[in-house]
Amino acid sequence: MDLPGISDGFRRLRRHTEAAGDMSAAAQDVRARQYERVCENFRILRRKYDSLKEVHQALLWGDAVLAHEGLAAGLPAVDPTLVEEAHRVGDVTTAATLGSGACSSVLEGAWPDGRPCAVKRISKRDAKTLQEVRNVASELEALRALTGAPHALELQAAFASRDHLYFVVERFGEELYALLKRDACALAPAQQAGVVHGVAAGLAHMHSLDLVHRDVKPENVLLADVVPGGGFRDVRVKLCDLGLAARGARAPLFQCCGSMGFFAPDMLDPAGYDGAPRTPGASAASRSSSRRRALFARVWFREYKASSPGAATATASTAASWPI
Length: 324
Fold this sequence. Notes:
Blueprint: H1 3-60, H2 63-68, E1 84-85, E2 88-89, E3 92-100, E4 104-110, E5 116-123, H3 130-146, E6 155-160, E7 164-170, E8 174-175, H4 176-182, H5 189-208, E9 211-212, E10 221-224, E11 236-239, E12 246-247, H6 284-295, H7 311-319
Antiparallel strand pairs: 1-2, 2-3, 3-4, 4-5, 5-7, 6-7, 8-10, 9-12, 10-11
Helix pairs in contact: 6-7
């Protein structure tokens, strides 16, 4: 065996390996510089995007657009002196977040005199379409119209800053869903009937004012004064979250909205939907009977969000002529 030849071979192999390593390091350096340029381009695009969002927000919530849509009078004017801090807005002290949505959140609050309240904070920046602005205006209109009704939350204040809208409502009870998630047997049979009656009464009052809720589900039903093992009247019921509420008879509605498993099949009608019966010759007595059967049927919430969420509520929606 030629040992000098083997040694020379190892030396050549080492030189080739070192050269390959140098090439790899150079390639890595090129890739690193390319990545830095990509990051810089992304930062430039992000700044342009943020600038466009500022312009979009100013236009979408501007006086000209709101006046053109007939919304200027209904929404609170921007208050440049409004105090917005981490745990305070205006005179209201805020605390924990109770819930959140696509462009809003609900905060636990309290007035200076200690009265509890809930603060819905709506981000103008996160509202992307004119329809979302219309929904906000419709929600405030519904809150004002329903204030004082026994099955609706009281609107206590509404104010606005450049970037946010705030709706302050009474703090009332807890969600039906949260209650039954904690204890599936929390409501006695008579109280279950009382809950259904309260929801039906709340919807009936809304319909009498030409308002449709369009998002009735256990999370949007609030209960208070629940007496364990109580009777029909041992529970108070209020509807909440009117973010999708709308007038039902001004013109046909076409927005398919709400929560899957709970929205009314009427929303799928290509001709639109409203509060009027679609079949002129339909029997009013038949509709009334179907509505009573649907509303006062035994509704089981234990299977909610399980195998077939909202089947009973969907049946109730189908029976009624209003898309609740």
